What we know:
The chain is mainly alpha-helical and 759 residues long. Strands 3-4-5-7-6 form a 5-stranded mixed beta sheet. It is globular and about 95 Å long.
Amino acid sequence: MRSEALRGAASRLGLPGWGALLAVVAAQFVPLTQLLGYEFSTLCGVLTIWLGVPWLIARREQWWNAEQVWRSWFAAMRPLALALLAAGAVSALNALRVQNCDLAAGGWIFLWLALGAVPTAAALALVSVAARPGRSAHAVALTVVAASYAATLLFLATQPAITAYNSFFGYFAGSIYDEALQPVATHAWFRAYTLSAAVAAVGFVVLRGVHRTQDRALFLLAAASAMTLFAYRGELGLERSRAYVERALGGRMETAHFEIFFDAGAFDERARKLLASDHEARFEEIRRVLGVEAPAQKLRSFVYANREQKGALMGARNTLFAKVWLGEMQILWGGLGDSMLAHELTHLMLAQSAGNWTGLPTRFGLPLNGVLEGVANAVEWSAEERDDHAWSAAIVRLGKGVPVAELMTPTGFWSRSGDTVYTLSGSFIRWLIETRGAPSFLAVYRSGDPVAAYGADWPTLESGWRAFLSAYPLRAEELDAASFRFDRPSVFEKRCARTIASRFEEASSKLSQGANAAAATCLKQILADDPSNLLYKMRVAGLLRRAGESVRAEALVLEVAEDGRATRAQRGDARRSAGDLAWARGETAAARRLFEEALALTPGSGGQRALGVRLQALAEATERPRAAEAIRRYLGAEGPALAISALELGEAVATEQSQVARYLLAVRLLQFEASAATERLATEALAAERDPARASFLLRVQGRYLARNGAAKLACEVWKKVASAAPKGSEGAVEAAMWLGRCEAGTLPNLDAPPSEWE
């Protein structure tokens, strides 16, 4: 009897049912889908269409009644909804095994993306059966779904967006680096549209037979609702086309090689000229370094005002993106010389070298991610303290390297920490180009075959690169800094990655709105979600300080300072934060002690500069109390308060002649205000500065200032000074090389504005 019951249950479940069950169980052991959230909900939504619809069609005699169509639709929905509720329960119970930090939010997402697919799936099955009562109903359903998927793929391939909604898929988030996903409110609008469309589809079947007046009214209402929501899909955030993005940005200009779309309200006339100049300068740099020809058509560049606007219009707040096959990129621009422009533009410039319609380097049809991203990093070649060669040497010596052959595969590249794989691939490809020339690299970009291009496979080439890295000089503190920077998991390895990212986004938003208490509550929940994560503790401490909870913030940074798992760099960063809090309370002796301890632990010129400013301000506090207080307030200020604190710095310079205040004010004004007064202040600050690291940094800021304000000759003189003093491979040396390259090429902007007219 028991075996007969089991066979009966198996028969009723059918192959699609067993497939769905196995997929749900397997998902509990896969990163991301093991949590009740976006990935699992999307999986369940897809299973509802691909397995649920065929299952319904195969059992149409159990629910289909041509005389009672509405009742048939509800009958078809019932087993799908029950199955999904069971799947949701399995995922919720899995939280006993794997931490799920926000079951309530996961439940809401499951409601919209998984359960929300039930009316659509049942309507598809019903329409297919009504259209083709026989076996060809399966073909009807498959055709509809395939056509819908094709339309979505076409949209993603031809429009700026990298996220998309689809009635038979749900929501696709295109960037793994944007861990905090689309707000649930947009999902609700999406499901309002799919429900309206489903009701309209069922209503259409009803109207084909005997029907009532209210059936016709319901069909018309549902159809009108679906069409209205579709018409306003851009405003609702459901689908934003290129035309919508162009209208939203509002600005457009053309240069010799570009069509640039930009936020008209964020770029004044001078900024537009600099934006155009930077695009053309980077174009020439890439062409010169790689020896590639100019594309036949102008490249398109979409430049957003900020990451929030970028996320709203094309779906990725933190990720810059290039659709190589379209010849267009989606970027944020940080001003003249922005390195990320070079990164994305390199992808576009190499499209013709790939030899296929995608413009991507491939091998056996799969993209070579290490080549694709590595060359972009190699050409961009920016530096944060040190260049990618130095950081890669440190990564390898720490035993955190990734085999080059693994870097070339999609799974090997994207499953690792972004910082690590981008740095390693950038160093490797830069080394290939420097030692074997650009033509050989372009050959491997086209063929994907290193043996044909270099006469050696990836492991053999890697051995030469590692030998090069082994000779790279590194100090112990640089290894520690690398451990701090690169010992970070990918989104697949983090605990509750999407939930915690969303909590940080929510906390920052509430702080900007002045809702400090609500922000603090959100931040404390992050600590409860992952109490041992030192990076989170430091980030939470900084935000708690903004929320006015200095006591809790100090407790957190002191925990990190004394944690045995913390690197030297982390302990130094924690002591600096604790020193800032002590200084804010007026405990100058404690602050000085903490800053001195931090200085002994902090690698890199940037952190040491920041600590040197604090220590010098404290040393001068007795003679220049107003200046010391102005410096303290300025270092802790953010947003609008920063401008007010800068005014206080100016008063300190005028009344107490504080050199530290003069240095800080000069740096700020060189970044934000073009005037003869700014130039005079910078000259005075440089002449009086006795700290070599601060003098070098101030000189670099001055070089950028002169370049973006049209003083090309003076800018080139400054960058020659920077290059002569900066150590090889340092941040200053890398930046100076870029600017001096523009000096030689004559691509610095010439705005014909002498210093006396900058005001």
